[in-house]
Amino acid sequence: MERGKISMYHKAKGYGFILPHLGGPAVFVHRSTLEPREPAPEPGDEIDFEAFKGLKGYRTTRATLVRTHE
């Protein structure tokens, strides 16, 4: 698992992007791979994730929200 930070998340569409702490390209995250799914992540939230390189770039296979803004 890697750790990163949510850079953007579109709540209505259920997807966003993670900036990995170790650097590299942004990683696409979809709500179907996110635990917990509610509440939706906010920019700046920490997230643990596993990803693979697909045809359109990196995307998560599993993602776990570490903390949310209150």
From TrEMBL:
Gene3D superfamilies: Nucleic acid-binding proteins
Domain CSD: 3-59
Record GO biological process: regulation of mRNA stability
GO cellular component: cytoplasm
Record's signal peptide: none
GO molecular function, one term: mRNA 3'-UTR binding
Protein name as catalogued: CSD domain-containing protein
Organism in which the protein naturally occurs: Lysobacter arseniciresistens ZS79
